Prior knowledge:
Elements: E1 9-11, E2 23-25, H1 30-49, H2 56-67, E3 71-72, H3 73-80, H4 84-96, E4 100-105, E5 108-116, H5 118-122, H6 124-138, H7 144-161, H8 163-168
Antiparallel strand pairs: 1-2, 3-5, 4-5
Helix pairs in contact: 1-6, 3-4
Amino acid sequence: MTTTRQRxxxxxxxxxxxxxxxxxxxxxxxxxxxxALARAFARALGDRIRPHxxxxxxxxxxxxxxxxxxxxxxxxSRRVAIETPTMVRTLDRMERDGLVERRRDPGDRRxxxxxxxxxxxxxxDVLVPCAVAVNxxxxxxxxxxxxxxxxxxxRRMLVALTPSQREAGQP
Length: 171
């Protein structure tokens, strides 16, 4: 059975010409598609990591700490791209769950450093394969070259939309 998807088109208010510059086709919008893809990735990843007691928000923090442990709450907030109050709540839950510890920086008591616990470190070898599996499912009908191109296209869009990265010339 073949299903036909209705094409969602938005035109500028009052436009009667139907000029293509005034039409926004939702299903052809990179922003719409990337947003839907991000939600699908988060859902698929969450399904795989939640049984290990980790949420997608905590996963993002763990990734950054696995790469460089001992960062400040402020640095984590910036690198994960979430607001500081949200990071504080995420870290509260992660500390409660035994994934991280927060300690005042002995050199600057205003700074709070976040370090992985042994449990937080041990989850790397369990959770990274979950993310790899999600990536493999998402790209299963692409060959190696197409996967590399897809990553490059997304990276270029990120650079174009992130002024600090655009100025630095990096994603």
